[in-house]
Every structure is written in C-alpha cells, then in structure tokens.
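tool_log.txt
---
The assistant was asked to compare two proteins side by side. It first ran the structure predictor on the initial sequence, then on the second. Raw inputs and outputs are pasted verbatim so the downstream comparison step can read them without reformatting.
(1)
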Amino acid sequence: MADASLIEDLVAGRWRDPGTGRPVHIATRSIVIERTLDGGEADLVRALKLGPRIAVIGDRNTFDALGRRVEQALAQSAVPHAVVLDPAHADVATADALEARVAADDALIAVGSGTINDLCKYVAHRTDRPYAVFATAPSMNGYLTASASLARDGFKASLPARPPVGAFFDLEVLAAAPARLIRAGIGDSICRTTAQTDWLLVHYLRDAPYSDTPYLLQIEDEPFLLRRTAAIAGGDLEGVRALTRLLVLAGLGMGIVGGSEPASMGEHLISHYVDMMASPHTGSLHGEQVGVATLTASRLQNAILRAPRPPAVRPTRLDETGIRARYGARLGDRCLAELRAKALDARMAERINARLTEIWPALTSRLQGIMLPTARLEEAMAAAGAPTRGPDLGLERGFYQGAVRHAREIRRRYTILDLAGDAELLNDFATEEG
C-alpha cells in the first residue's frame, strides 16, 4: 500500500500534482482512517466547528451500527438531533423531506454509506450548510465527491453536491459491515481500469479534457486490493484499510478534476440503466452492479482495442420511436437530448475514422498500458464471492443484454459503448453478455 502520509498531505495541501508541479487543494479538512474511533467522535466533530445544533442522519441499520454512538458522543458538547430515515431512498423526493426535517440545524452528519451520504451532501449543498460523514461500510467511492447520484422523476442523475468537511472511517465498524457491502466496495473500485480507458479514449477521439492525476493517487493501492479480495470480503482489517483508502482516493481524484469521469464511464452507465429500468428492482447494490458492468466493459474494450485494425464508425443512429417506447415519452425525450449531445454526424464520423486510422497503433499501445486483463478482474471478484454476470444480480439475461445495448442512451458521456454502437459492433457483443 502507499504511504499513509499521502492522504495527510492531500488534506494539508502539501501534495503536488506531478503533471503540473502545483499543490492540490481539496475541500475536505479532516480525513481519519483508524482501527477504532470509539470515544473520539466528539473531538473529531468539535475540531470542524460545525455549530451547536447538529443533525445526525442515518437509517435503521446505520444507526444501530454507529449512529447512536455518534449521537451520544456529540451530546457532550452539542445538541444532536437524530434523524432516522425509514426507508432511505436515493431520490430527490427523499432529499426534499430530509431538508424539511433538518431546517433548524446548523450542520449535518451523515452516518452511513451511499444513499445516506448522497442525501446529506445534496441537502448540504442546497442549503449552504457544512456536513461531515461517519462511514458505516466500505461500499462505494462517493464519500468525498462533489456530486450525488439521485433519481429525479425516475431519471438517475448526477447532481451538484457538497463534499464533506470531515470524513471518518472506523475500520472495526467497516469490517463488521455485511460482506455484501464490502464486496460492493470492491466492485466500485475495480472500475478504475475501464473508466480510465474510456476517459483517455474520448480524449484522443473527441479532444475531451483528461488528467492522469486521479490515477496516480491509486497506483500503489490497487494491486494490493486485487491480491487480497477474499480476505477483504472476510473482514480482514488491513485489507479493509486498503479498500477504504482506495475508495477515498478515488473520490478525491474526482474532486480534484471537478467531475466523475475518472471513476464513472461506460460501466456506470450500465449500472444506472439497471437502476432506472429494472422493474421491479432486484435489490442489487450499486457496487455489485458496477463490478459486473466493469467486467462487461473490460471485455468490450479488449475486443475492440486489441484488434489489429480500428473500427469504422458511422453517423449515430437515433431511434426516436424505440427510445420513447423504451423509456416513455418524458424520459424518452430526455434520453434523446442526452444522445443527441454526443451523436456523430457524417462529418464527425469521418473525422474520427481518420483519426483512428492515423493513431491506432499508438492509441492502442497507450490504452493497453492502463487496461487490466478481464480475467484478472474476474478472478478478483470471484475470490471475493461477488457477482460477475448479470444473472448473479437477479437480472434476466435478456434484460442485462438490453442494458448493455441501451445504456449509452441515458448520458451524453461518450464511452466504449458509444464507439461500439457507432461502429455497429454493440448489438452482437451484447448478445454474448448476461
């Protein structure tokens, strides 16, 4: 693993971007990852100077795991206000209700992981208040990001949010989380390879901004994680520490570049499609879905980017009738707007084909240098006991194949799914998935 001082240097503003030589500044003032934080919660929060009235927000499970302990600790020097969300849905309607319940509080403390954290950071952003988080599971990489993944009118969106001023990780609590949540964190970590490949690909093909910086933060921890997934899923403390560090560093990387591209590309579109379109939803977790979708994206990237010749793209086909039938009129119009924003016309297709022909050997050499073999990823996921295929998520094979075919329609972000679709390779590939 990387030296523990890396996170300390980032918080203190001492870490310099190797590409620019300039110091990197992050919004979070305190990040603490320790074997136990029991008895130290009040001091951690007091140092943040959040004010006397503090809402402590969780759901029934996270309050049992840690929330009650945090609430009792804060009573030494503040006026904690316990807010238990039952149920906690990752949608704007739940955020609206939470905002009303904490209207009189000076600050928010999230005690939980994905949904709880997203709701709190979104409400903190909307109401211009600080928030901190006590993690209860190493299940996702969004603890320190400036976005929240919430549904609005049935459409899963990445909404502006506020990073926490403090983020606290009690490893004994995290290691005691259900193994399924830990596996989900592994799934949300392994997407580094597919996200970086997609992001660098669109940089070469469509001149999108790109930075190596987020990946330099993770370069020493990822190999350790891939070797230890079985122990991590079993609650091994040092393994959970490595997973937690990697999730934290991935989140910080997104914050540094001001977007989610470093850790959210084609594989995340498939996960978002599942969340939007599975009816009823099978209850699969975000990280479980991302892990499965990462293996899919990796297979697609390897199939295309290890070929001796580049694919030939054509102008993007906009199946307006099919999209409206798939999503309904309102969501269909929104998906069409997203797809049109990145669609290739004849001139753009010609330009990309010319560029692919010109740079193909250099491009594939560079991309293969950051890609990991699909077999290595699948082996790590299987060792952890994590899902590796669509049916493992409780999804029908045909539905997952549809997710692979159509996930590109829900975001304007260009990924390997778009390159394959515009080259008319995606339908045949999807037939083999699921």
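(2)
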Amino acid sequence: MNRTTKIILTVLLILVLARLALPYFVTNYVNKVLADIEGYTGSIDDVDISLYRGAYQIHGLELFSVQDEIKTPFVAIKTIDLSVEWKALFDGAVVGEVLLLNPELNFAAAPASGEVQTGEENDWTKTVTDLIPLQINRFEINNGKISYIDNYVEPKVDIYFNEFNAVATNLNNSTDSQEDLPSNLKVNSLSIGNGRLVATADLNILKEVPDFDLNVSFEDVNIPALNDFFKAYAGVDAESGSFNFYTEVALIDKELNGYFKPLTKDLKVLKWSQEEEKFFGKVWEGIVGLAGNIIENHGKDQVGTKVPISGNIENFEVGVWKSIIELLKNAYFAPLKGEIDKSINPDSVKKDSKEPDEKKDDKVLGIF
C-alpha cells in the first residue's frame, strides 16, 4: 500500500469517525442551550445530522416550567430542522432557515396562583440563535397548535388554534430588496369553534424596533364552543352566535396606527332548558343577554365596534370614546362591515404622525 493510499484511507477514516461522533457532540450542545433557558427545563429525544444539506434535526423537544405545579409542557416540538438556506446562496448570502414540524405552545395556568406560563422569563431570540449559528432568513411552522389550558377551574378550560401554519421569508433581506418592508409573513389556522384565522404582514425586523404592516381576519368562530371558558371565568354560557375579528395595524419608526374590530352575530346567551343551572346564574345570564340585545343591530343581528389605536409605541392611545360611538352606530345606524377595511398602511402612519399634537389627541379620543 503506497503512501497516497494510506493518506486517503486515513482521511476517510477520520471523516467516518467524525460523522459518527457528531450527533453525540451536537446533542450535548443542544442540551446545554436548553439548560440555559431561564425559568424552564428541557430535554430532547434524538439528533440527526444531514451533512449534505448543511443541516441537523432535533427530535422530541420538550420544555417544562420549573414551577412543579404546572405539568403541561410549555413547548413540545416533534422535529426542528435547522439548515443553511440554499436558495439564498444564489443571492450571495449565507443564511439559515428553521422549520418546526408539529410544534405545540401551551399557555397553562398554575393551580394556586393562577399565573400562566408565558415564556416571558427567557430571551427566545437568543435561544434560537444559539441553536443555529447563521442569521435566520426563513422561518416556517408546519401543523402547529397554540393552546390556553386551565385544569384547575370548573369546568376545565382548553381553547386553542390548531393546524397552525406560518411562513416568514427574507427576514435578513438576503435579496437586498430596497423596499422599506422587505420581509413577508403569512399565517393561517383553525380555532376551537372552527374559526378561520388568516394573517399577512410585511416587515422590517432588521431595525432595533421592527416596522410592520399587519392585516388579520379571524372569522366564523362558533361561540358556544367556548362555553367552558365563559362558564369558568364569567359564569355565563351561549346558546348560539358567531364571532369575527378584524384588525389592521402598522408600525413605522415607532409610530403606530390601526384599529381592532370585534363583531358578534346572532348571539344568544341564555339556556333556559338546562335545569341544573342555579337561579342566580340564570339571572346573571339574563343581564348579559339583555345588555347585548340593547346594543345589537337588529337588521344584521350584529354587535360590534371599531377600536382605533394610534401614537408612539412608548405612549400610544386607545380610542375609547370613538369605540363607544362606533358601537352605538353599529346598533342604531350603519352596521360595521365584516371585513378588513383596507384603510391602514405605512403611508397612513406617516401622515398621522405629522398631525399637530392637539388634533391627534382629539382624533384618538374620537371627538372629531
């Protein structure tokens, strides 16, 4: 065996051994990252390496709150795929992409304090960047679920979004786009009560305070499907009705402009046929139902209002009086349309921010 052959065989042997040892070292590294998460403890089942893709996969990740009384995992993800985004290489950028398969995010309540695990203790941006050393340019969620769970009230509460899919692209602006908002986000999901959530946004997350232009519609939620939530926290239940929600919000250079528009249709709160309900519970349900009936637009069987928000994010205002006016207008004059108004965009934020302070204050309060 000549010297060249020995060198080639030695290099091949080193590569094979390195490949066999790599999952072990990557697993230790991932566990170290999980151990550094503030307020949570985590574990994984396995790690796979895909050298030909420049990728690795984390399987069976679970994160639990350090509060012993909360038994539901805060995060549970079947597979996390972290890799080089090869498409961006054609634009001359070396960036990464993250794919989450079947992730679950659970906001679970504690039994005694009622506090909810929200993850606010930790800087999750740092956690993700620790797991992938490249700047992330593409982020995707496939078939996720987001839940609010409270097993310590009666009845137990479990409300959720499932079939949650989201794609965020060009986050690092690898295409060198000259647009003010070069990144894009698309979200769609179903909810308890068969509601349909659709959200789209253009973003610039490269700024210290990211700019964005966001549109959200959440439609046709069957309100009786939420009765466990209503009974547990408000002492009422619904016999029928649907809920819709629309919002447009734009944030440019820390200036915010937008609105929230919640609408309910055919809402009936009382269920007189349930003999097991207590008398005072029925009285409370009757009061809630009467209030809704007073402000309902009977031509459309609809209750709703439009809540404007505007101002600098460090001191933005909610248009309380204008919201009340919109509620009364919907009840007695012109019903609100069940759709996005297409009235908010980055230009509207810039225009609003140039108005004199006195006029802006009046607009916020809904006086004019």
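---
observation on (2): The chain has a mean pLDDT of 78. The helical segments are 3-35, 86-89, 124-131, 227-234, 279-294, 320-332, 346-353, 357-365.
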